[in-house]
Amino acid sequence: MTYHKKAALYIRVSHEEQAMKGYSLQAQENRLRAYAAFKGYEVVDVYKDEGVSARHRPGHRREFARMMHDVTAGRIEIIVFIKLDRWFRNVSDYYSYQAILDAHHVEWETTEEDYNTSTAQGRLYLNIKLSIAQNESDTTAERIRFVFADKIKRREAISGKLPLGYAIENKRIVPNQHAAVVRDIFHHYLAVKSIRATMHYLYNRYHIKRTYPAMVKLLRNEKYTGLAYGDPQYLPPLISQETFFAVQHLLEEQRRYHQTPHRLYLFTGLLHCPHCGKRLVGLTRHYKTRQYIYYHCPSPTGSPIASHSFRLKEAELEEKLLIALPCVMERLTKRDSISSAFTFYLSCHHLYPHWHYTERRHYWQTLLRSIYFDEVGDPVITLCEEV
């Protein structure tokens, strides 16, 4: 039976390249599929980063991150793309991710160029190509910065992405039909002193939906006072400075009010994301009269290893750990004589139900670090895979 290498087809195209050079997603995919069929590869998946410039770091490309997750999961043996500049335009980025590929024995090939990294001459050629690509990208970035600086000086719009209440006319940012809505929202928030109530008001009266974080971002947007890029008159103000700073003061007061001792989360520093390996971050959310505590991955969607949205409830994790601990301790005693973790567990675990939050936090920090220091010599562990 003939063995077929498991291949990933990677495609990246920016809007400019698609329009000017014909590097459309479909054209690249057709070429890559034909190449894979010729080489006898089994196509595992096609990873398409559309509208992504070469200046985007690889970890911020959604599909690239998903592909790297599949690499670490052992689903891929070779990656195929049309040219090196689809892959990287930065020498340091290349070697950072090449180390991951090497660790998982994953190769790569291009359909339009020939590289041989097994020889010193081949590696030199690769470095030269990467350096040229990086220089081209840096030169383009400098040109864009110059154009943007000139636009900012003339107070012209440099992006079509604008806050609610603004539009672009003749290259300038001007108020649109939602300008009055923005003014109303700021004054309504000052009146009701509630972000959620303001969210509902915005939706019920104007049929504009905003999430809680988006509502906070709107209320904190200093552009509504006319300030942008250091210019206090860059765009027409929709609210006064007094109103804006009154809202900021109220937001800060509410932020401090909702800060509780739960800022010291039970498992701070102990949890890793199972996708990208970063430490999970504690997050507190209030709904009506209840408080909910989560741990979530701080990486943006399209992290260096995975494209994901990972979250753990603290209460559920605590419950699972309490159930799992006796089995873990039994395993420790079978393997070792008496470990420090086992001694600590026996001395105080029966008191756990009577402890306050800070005492429970100290217990988990001490116990779990002891367990995993005894086992693997690393006090920072991925608990979500253990429970």
Automatic annotation (TrEMBL):
<dbReference type="InterPro" id="IPR038109">
    <property type="entry name" value="DNA_bind_recomb_sf"/>
</dbReference>
<dbReference type="InterPro" id="IPR011109">
    <property type="entry name" value="DNA_bind_recombinase_dom"/>
</dbReference>
<dbReference type="InterPro" id="IPR050639">
    <property type="entry name" value="SSR_resolvase"/>
</dbReference>
<dbReference type="InterPro" id="IPR006119">
    <property type="entry name" value="Resolv_N"/>
</dbReference>
<dbReference type="Pfam" id="PF07508">
    <property type="entry name" value="Recombinase"/>
</dbReference>
<protein>
    <submittedName>
        <fullName>Recombinase family protein</fullName>
    </submittedName>
</protein>
<feature type="domain" description="Resolvase/invertase-type recombinase catalytic">
    <location>
        <begin position="6"/>
        <end position="155"/>
    </location>
</feature>
<dbReference type="InterPro" id="IPR025827">
    <property type="entry name" value="Zn_ribbon_recom_dom"/>
</dbReference>
<dbReference type="Pfam" id="PF13408">
    <property type="entry name" value="Zn_ribbon_recom"/>
</dbReference>
<feature type="domain" description="Recombinase">
    <location>
        <begin position="163"/>
        <end position="257"/>
    </location>
</feature>
<dbReference type="InterPro" id="IPR036162">
    <property type="entry name" value="Resolvase-like_N_sf"/>
</dbReference>
<dbReference type="Pfam" id="PF00239">
    <property type="entry name" value="Resolvase"/>
</dbReference>
